[in-house]
C-alpha cells in the first residue's frame, strides 16, 4: 500500500503544469493544473486516461463533442483521442490516471 500525498491538489502554477506522483508498469497517477484563462497545450496520449476534476471549471473538447466539467466530474479519454480543456473559468485541478503508465506505449 502507498498513500499518494498531494495528488489532485492545486499547485499554483503560472502556466499549465503536470506532476507525476506514481508510476508502475500498468498505470501512473499525476496532477494536472491549469490556471484561470490558461491554455491546455497537451497532445493525444498513447495510453488510456481518466481525469477526475477536483477543483475548477472548464469545458473539455474532443472530436466527438464537448462538455462542461467541474468538481467531481470523471472523464475517460481513450488512447490517441484529441482532447483539450478550454474556457477555464476557475483554477482547474485534475487527478489523472493513465493505463498503462504515461509514456509506456510511446514509440510502439
TL;DR?
The protein has 108 residues and is an all-beta fold.
Identify the notable features of this structure and list them briefly.
108 residues; globular; mainly beta; six-stranded antiparallel sheet
Strand fraction equals over 45%
**Number of beta-strand segments:** 6
The percent of residues in helical segments reads under 10%
Low-confidence stretches: none
**Biggest sheet statistics:** 6 strands, antiparallel
What is the H level of CATH, i.e. the homologous superfamily? Answer: Jelly Rolls
Instruction: Write the H/E string, N to C.
Output: EEEEEE
* Secondary-structure-derived class: mainly beta
- CATH top level label: Mainly Beta
Overall description:
The protein is an all-beta fold. It has a single domain, classed as Jelly Rolls. The protein contains no helices and six strands. Strands 1, 2, 3, 4, 5 and 6 form a six-stranded antiparallel β-sheet that branches. It is globular, with a radius of gyration of 13 Å. Keywords: Isomerase. InterPro entries: Cupin_2, RmlC-like_jellyroll, RmlC_Cupin_sf. This is Mannose-6-phosphate isomerase-like protein (Cupin superfamily). One of its GO terms (molecular function) is isomerase activity. It holds the Pfam family Cupin_2.
Task: Explain the layout of strands and helices.
Layout: E1 17-24, E2 27-34, E3 48-62, E4 65-69, E5 74-77, E6 84-99
Antiparallel strand pairs: 1-2, 2-6, 3-4, 3-5, 3-6
Amino acid at each position: 500500500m502507498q498513500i499518494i500525498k498531494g495528488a489532485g491538489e492545486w499547485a499554483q502554477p503560472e502556466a499549465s503544469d503536470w506532476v507525476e506522483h506514481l508510476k508502475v508498469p500498468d498505470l501512473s497517477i499525476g496532477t494536472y493544473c491549469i490556471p484561470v484563462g490558461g491554455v491546455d497545450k497537451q497532445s493525444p496520449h498513447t495510453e488510456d486516461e481518466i481525469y477526475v476534476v477536483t477543483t475548477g471549471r472548464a469545458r473539455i473538447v474532443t472530436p466527438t463533442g464537448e462538455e462542461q466539467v467541474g468538481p467531481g466530474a470523471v472523464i475517460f479519454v481513450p488512447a490517441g483521442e484529441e482532447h483539450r480543456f478550454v474556457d477555464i473559468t476557475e483554477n482547474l485541478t485534475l487527478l489523472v490516471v493513465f493505463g498503462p503508465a504515461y509514456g509506456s506505449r510511446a514509440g510502439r
